């Protein structure tokens, strides 16, 4: 027995060593990799662009098929930043060239926070028009799909019906003085059924109404103690696809009158008459389609310059803008030749995924012809030529409408007068509008 003791001791040590290593391996296998945050991905892509810009005389360089592009950072799409695996990430960034053309560029990155390397770069869009789109396949990876062969759902369209939770979030900036706040509240109608699931506000609200357009809003008076406060409203939305629908009663004359940023007559009438030349006796439906085609053919979707106010004069002069300019221009043209038309704004819900961030607000229009209101989405028709016909007379189910109309009159009113349009919270301090941080997101099947 004395002879066996040393061997027994060694076997015992080996046994416990193996057990220790096995336990360690099991712990390593079961310890999940720390998920890289969206903020860390944003920091990684910004650091990469900053470094490349510093090395190239202040420009980020991309080799296109025809030329070398010299670009400057406009923004990072935080709503599209995502993790593709333990150390693989995706980022989408807007960069503008010296002429003002805006390129949407997709980046794939690998590595840990602070050590991320870009492994692939591709030009996704030019001034809002895509060269390709993305499709998620069975194994949860993503592949490129040429726009010409993409189905409607990959181009932003959900037909028939859609159901989702929509989160409306804003964070107030620093308030050094008393502030007034107006927030739109989505309403149910024939095409959307709205349920408020929860509402978080910094102070007891006051409900007010824009009776002319049927909009409802929250009004609050806040102070410095509310600096940084959060606003969060979670809606459940059931929405159906909108097509041409019967008008109820007489058409309100305001749909033929000018708005502050949507004038009529003058150059607008001249353009509208030229665009509809030869179609004077063909009816308002044909003439409206001619205006729709004129804008698609002559405008560029571009978030650059003084865009986003829905200024029809700016749209007419520059032939650029976002959805607000496209539809304001259309309304000014249509009203100038006697076609009633109106404006609405909300958000478009992504069709190619079931949760995540939303790229801000989206707006659209309607015009009256042949006894019906006809929905149009001209900026989407401009982006996706394959859907130009669909977007004349249809609005897909994957959207939420937050408010209607322009020059909204409420009481209390901002000191600057009627509200141009409202999607984001309007915050006013001493007659000056300040902008809170806003984030929209959604989830289907919640």
From TrEMBL:
<feature type="domain" description="Transglutaminase-like">
    <location>
        <begin position="315"/>
        <end position="380"/>
    </location>
</feature>
<feature type="signal peptide">
    <location>
        <begin position="1"/>
        <end position="19"/>
    </location>
</feature>
<dbReference type="InterPro" id="IPR038765">
    <property type="entry name" value="Papain-like_cys_pep_sf"/>
</dbReference>
<dbReference type="GO" id="GO:0008233">
    <property type="term" value="F:peptidase activity"/>
</dbReference>
<keyword id="KW-0732">Signal</keyword>
<keyword id="KW-0645">Protease</keyword>
<dbReference type="Pfam" id="PF01841">
    <property type="entry name" value="Transglut_core"/>
</dbReference>
<dbReference type="InterPro" id="IPR002931">
    <property type="entry name" value="Transglutaminase-like"/>
</dbReference>
<dbReference type="GO" id="GO:0006508">
    <property type="term" value="P:proteolysis"/>
</dbReference>
<protein>
    <submittedName>
        <fullName>Transglutaminase-like enzyme, predicted cysteine protease</fullName>
    </submittedName>
</protein>
<keyword id="KW-0378">Hydrolase</keyword>
């Amino acid at each position: 027995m004395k002879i066996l003791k040393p061997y027994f001791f060694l076997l015992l040590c080996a046994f416990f060593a193996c057990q220790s290593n096995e336990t360690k391996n099991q712990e390593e296998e079961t310890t999940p990799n720390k998920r890289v945050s969206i903020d860390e991905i944003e920091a990684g892509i910004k650091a990469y662009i900053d470094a490349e810009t510093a090395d190239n005389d202040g420009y980020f360089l991309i080799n296109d098929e025809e030329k070398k592009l010299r670009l400057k950072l406009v923004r990072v799409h935080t709503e599209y930043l995502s993790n593709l695996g333990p150390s693989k990430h995706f980022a989408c960034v807007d960069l503008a060239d010296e002429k003002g053309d805006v390129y949407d560029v997709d980046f794939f990155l690998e590595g840990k926070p602070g050590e991320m390397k870009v492994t692939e770069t591709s030009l996704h869009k030019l001034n809002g028009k895509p060269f390709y789109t993305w499709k998620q396949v069975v194994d949860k990876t993503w592949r490129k799909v040429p726009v010409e062969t993409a189905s409607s759902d990959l181009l932003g369209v959900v037909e028939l019906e859609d159901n989702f939770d929509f989160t409306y979030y804003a964070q107030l900036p620093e308030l050094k003085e008393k502030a007034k706040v107006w927030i739109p509240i989505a309403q149910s109608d024939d095409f959307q059924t709205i349920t408020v699931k929860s509402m978080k506000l910094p102070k007891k609200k006051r409900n007010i109404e824009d009776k002319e357009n049927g909009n409802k809003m929250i009004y609050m008076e806040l102070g410095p103690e509310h600096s940084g406060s959060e606003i969060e409203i979670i809606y459940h939305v059931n929405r159906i696809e909108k097509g041409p629908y019967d008008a109820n009663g007489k058409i309100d004359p305001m749909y033929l009158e000018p708005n502050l940023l949507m004038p009529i007559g003058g150059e607008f009438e001249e353009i509208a008459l030229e665009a509809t030349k030869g179609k004077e006796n063909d009816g308002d439906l044909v003439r409206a389609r001619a205006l729709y085609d004129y804008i698609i053919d002559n405008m560029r979707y571009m978030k650059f310059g003084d865009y986003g106010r829905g200024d029809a004069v700016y749209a007419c002069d520059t032939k650029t803008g976002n959805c607000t300019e496209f539809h304001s221009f259309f309304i000014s043209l249509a009203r100038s030749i006697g076609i009633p038309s109106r404006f609405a704004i909300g958000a478009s819900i992504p069709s190619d995924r079931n949760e995540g961030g939303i790229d801000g607000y989206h707006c659209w229009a309607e015009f009256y012809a042949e006894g019906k209101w006809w929905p149009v989405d001209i900026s989407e028709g401009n982006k996706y030529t394959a859907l130009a016909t669909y977007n004349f007379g249809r609005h897909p189910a994957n959207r939420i409408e937050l408010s209607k109309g322009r020059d909204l009159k409420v009481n209390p009113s901002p000191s600057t007068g009627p509200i141009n349009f409202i999607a984001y919270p309007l915050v006013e301090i001493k007659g000056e509008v300040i902008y809170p941080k806003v984030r929209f997101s959604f989830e289907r099947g919640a």
